[in-house]
From TrEMBL:
Xref: InterPro entries: Acyl_CoA_acyltransferase (IPR016181), GNAT_dom (IPR000182), Rv0428c-like_C (IPR056935), SH3_Rv0428c (IPR056934)
SUPFAM superfamilies, per database record: Acyl-CoA N-acyltransferases (Nat) (SSF55729)
Full protein name: N-acetyltransferase
PROSITE patterns: GNAT
Lineage: Bacteria, Bacillati, Actinomycetota, Actinomycetes, Kitasatosporales
Length: 319
């Protein structure tokens, strides 16, 4: 007997389903995970490993809500997901550091992501990292979480902090519920990065090295949203989401100044949130500069909260 309903979307469930008669190995199969969607008689469940199961309602013989597992999403784990969603063309592992280079396009893609310890003492590791970036004609930058031991080492060595930012997370089902009455019919979504989308992204306007398209296109699971002016056809609002298993990263939300306060940003976030849920994601995340009040307020309303803070460290002699 089923003990779950569509109102349980967003909760963790255990479902037993009857398998087709041609499956000779077993009569039933169990699925445990987050119920992220239930429509047209099909349940979409995201397992703990990020895989997705779609279960026909008619095949269910038993189901129940189960307690969520004890799970802590560490800053290092979330930053690793974020780095894979914003991939630099060149990445080198150095112990638990990731050295990234993208011709100078964004600090995220041109910095050392500190996820743990290098495989040698800090002073020697610094020399090796400096040489790696010098060979690419790039300054050495570290992306490091607040309170990380290496951040304290850099601070004591005189490395300058810049680009203070927040990693924020939220439950996608809660955001979708808040946005349920928003009309997203104006939003077009595609899997390919287009010239029209790029034309509105302000960071590209400051960069012409060519690596930006590699970074922005991202891995499979990246979607691009566009709202176009009905008269001129040119884009007036854009957004991007990258779905990696259970996680969906939102970025690139831009609205032309002449078209603000018309609900375009919320429409884009709704459209991308719905697609992320349909793709099996459970948790949304975004990286936002600490002083970006508008972005923080938008996602505050959707239930997002601060996960951790981070910043970049630059050598005092770098330009």
């Amino acid at each position: 007997m089923k003990r779950i309903t569509p109102r349980d979307v967003g909760r963790r469930v255990s479902v037993r389903r009857e398998l087709p008669p041609e499956d000779a190995e077993a009569s039933y199969s169990d699925v445990v995970g987050d119920l992220v969607d239930w429509r047209d008689g099909v349940l979409t469940i995201t397992r703990r490993d990020g895989s997705i199961a779609r279960v026909a309602e008619a095949s269910i013989v038993a189901a129940k809500v189960v307690p969520p597992p004890v799970r802590r999403l560490t800053p290092a784990r979330l930053q690793d997901v974020a780095s894979r969603s914003w991939p630099a063309p060149e990445v080198a592992a150095f112990g638990e550091w990731l050295l990234r280079a993208a011709g100078g396009f964004t600090r995220r893609a041109n910095s050392v992501l500190v996820l743990g310890e290098p495989d040698m003492p800090f002073p020697e590791a610094l020399d090796r990292v400096n040489a790696w970036y010098s060979a690419r004609d790039l300054p050495t930058l570290f992306q490091v979480a607040h309170e990380d031991p290496f951040d304290r080492f850099l601070d004591a060595a005189g490395w300058l902090a810049e680009g203070d930012a927040l990693m924020r997370t939220g439950r996608l089902v809660r955001a979708a519920d808040v946005l349920r009455d928003v009309d997203a019919g104006r939003v077009e979504i595609g899997t390919a990065l287009t010239d029209e989308w790029v034309s509105l992204y302000h960071r590209v306007a400051r960069h012409a090295g060519g690596a930006e398209r590699h970074v922005l296109q991202g891995p499979p699971g990246t979607l691009f949203a566009t709202v176009s002016d009905p008269e001129s056809g040119r884009p007036v609002a854009i957004g991007r989401v990258c779905v990696l298993g259970r996680y969906a990263g939102f970025a690139g939300l831009e609205v032309d100044p002449a078209h603000r306060r018309r609900g375009h940003a919320r429409a884009i976030v709704k459209a991308l949130t719905d697609r992320a849920l349909a793709g099996g994601a459970v948790t949304g995340w975004l990286q936002v500069e600490s002083d970006n009040r508008a972005a923080r307020e938008l996602y505050d309303a959707l239930g997002y909260t601060d996960h951790h803070g981070y910043h970049y460290r630059r050598s005092p002699g770098a330009t």
